[in-house]
Amino acid sequence: MDIFEKLKILADSAKYDVACTSSGVDREGVPGELGSTSSCGICHSFAADGRCISLLKVLYTNFCVFDCKYCVNRRSNDTPRAAFTPRELADLTIQFYRRNYIEGLFLSSGVLRTPDDTCERMIEALSILRDEYRFHGYIHVKAIPGADRVLINRLGMLADRMSINIELPSQQSLELLAPDKSKTSILKPMGYISGKIQENTADIVQYKNAPKFAPAGQSTQMIVGATPDSDYQILRLAEGLYKKYSLKRVFYSAYMPVAEHSLLPSVHTKPPLLREHRLYQADWLLRFYGFEAKELLDEEHQNFNPALDPKCNWAVNHLELFPVEINRVSYEMLLRVPGIGVKSAKRILTARRMGSLRFEDLKKLGVVLKRAQYFILCGGKTARGLRITQDGILRGLLSERGMQMLPKSFEQLSLFPDQNRNTTEDVRKCLTGQI
Known about the structure:
about 425 residues, TIM Barrel, 2 domains, 6-stranded parallel beta sheet, globular
């Protein structure tokens, strides 16, 4: 099998790994050496369907001794197999880089023979890139669970970012679909990598040219939709990983059915892309807006509303906290108002020192008034002509997104309650598809 046939097989097999991040590393080019990387660069990945390529996203091999039922590369699956040699992978990466096809390498792998054997081969390929070709570009590598710590340490010294996929949110799901794996076997090396990354800040490595272990940090990936695990379970796990292991990112990958199995969704099931999107939005709230998982979801409401983004959904369910006076409310509470982001919240704090803000001022500051207007006051007043009720807010937010999920009816001022009017419960049932 020639190298181009291997590339076709192994690039296609790598498309299920998510890696759409900026590099997080600043490293200038050096005369006589090859490549550089910018912390804000590399925001795309290799895709088999022709999307923009900034990373060569490939497996070292798709041979695997594991039999994870959700994985296209499981040992029991009848699929074409291939494996690079370390020299082939290094040469291919450099040739693509010199032609300006890529800016870096994203390397993962199936487990060939043993975790240690696979890890040694990946290390050899990266060593050729770093030491022989003097490649200073970006490298993201997936660590192999079960590999010896000495090998993981060597791999981390060659890579900019490392990750270990936790794959499924619960031990029960792993036992059902990935019997060769356990949560402990994944979390243990994740903890080791986290500890090694923290050593980068120690006094001993403060020297400019001192090598650092995975300086761009660590990430992981969870599959969404392959198991009955709820959004609440997924989000709580992500929150715990951020706090305990200081992860840079948790990626959520909508499950794409690749195998017919009684424990998996039908192969005709569409990937839950909207659910994946809502989890990414909630993840953003955890990392930058001061929310906790237990605020966004709970035991009684374990999945996100598909019709509303998590922040709007939280605000609608906590109307006792709103509306807030935009000229006096704290920065922390500003961040919880739908339509106000981190940048616009900071602009509001700066602008209101000069005088009282009006609704028209907020729009100039970048506030999305179509959402925020239901939850704020300016000078003690609501937006002109706005009537704030839970049903009205829901209708307004859905209308702003072009949703047509509610019954077509008109709401008008009435002196007496209308028994035929849609109640809040009716609205909730419509949003969740119950009616």
